[in-house]
Design brief:
0% strand; 158 residues
Length: 158
């Protein structure tokens, strides 16, 4: 497990995720700015009023969808970096079964992270919300870590 965490440090994952978080925040701010400018800004001549309706609908759709899509991209990058850290840890220790065994042991724990929140979920080694949400493709989209079973299977193949 230490090799896994050292791999995150070696690969500058904290810096990468900080940059991704800034980009996601920028997308949200731009969507908000665009929405506000469509509703409360600009000229008020006849041509502007005719085309403003289409742009207002587009602005509302973009304001709703763009932050969600940006967040999904951020979470997907986070899951990919976990796979990379697993692979680097296996390379570093030359013992992928050790990490696989440790992940299985952590996964079999009955304790849940009652003190965890969605803001701190990415800091945990395994999903702190075990048993709280159904395993589905939708919950997988909003997860910061890939499923343990998937990670263990890939480590066992190495």
């Amino acid at each position: 497990m230490i090799a896994h965490e050292l791999s995150h440090i070696k690969d500058y994952d904290t810096r990468l995720m900080a940059i991704v978080a800034v980009l996601v925040g920028s997308v949200a701010i731009l969507a908000d700015w665009f929405t506000h400018s469509m509703f409360w800004g600009g000229r008020d001549d006849r041509e502007s009023r005719n085309s403003r309706g289409i742009f207002m609908i587009l602005a509302v759709i973009l304001a709703i969808l763009s932050p969600i899509i940006a967040t999904l991209i951020q979470l997907a990058i986070s899951r990919r970096r976990e796979f990379l850290a697993d692979a680097n840890a296996a390379y570093l220790t030359r013992f992928p079964n050790g990490l696989a065994d440790a992940l299985e042991k952590l996964n079999s724990s009955r304790r849940t992270g009652s003190f965890a929140s969605t803001a701190t979920a990415h800091l945990f080694i395994v999903n702190p919300f075990k048993g709280k949400d159904a395993v589905s493709w939708l919950s997988g989209l909003f997860s910061t870590h890939p499923p343990i079973e998937e990670r263990v299977a890939l480590l066992r193949k190495m």
